[in-house]
Amino acid sequence: MSDTIFGKIIRREIPADIVYEDDDLIAFKDISPQAPVHVLFVPKTPIATLNDVTPGHAELVGKMILAAAAYAKRQGFADNGYRCVINCNSHGGQTVFQLHLHLLGGAPLHGGFA
Description:
The protein is α+β, with helices and mostly antiparallel strands. Helices cover 21% and strands 22% of the residues.
């Protein structure tokens, strides 16, 4: 695992409010939430950016999306709607260079795209 803050969370070197974990993924609450629910879903495989995803990562990326959708359903806000975002590189807003998905929900979200 990489030496990013997310790698340190996966290795339990720093604390996080972990809400989901399996052999491939970990999910925890964002420390600077942009919505009432803001959870990060992170693969345990080191992948720096979305640009670094290969066809061999398709199942892993699919698991990340499915885990986020399942969490939204379990928490009761899926029917009202939510947003999943993957930022890529600095112009895309990525600040931690380990692939991760932001799940945002729990209230109406503004500024979305059609």
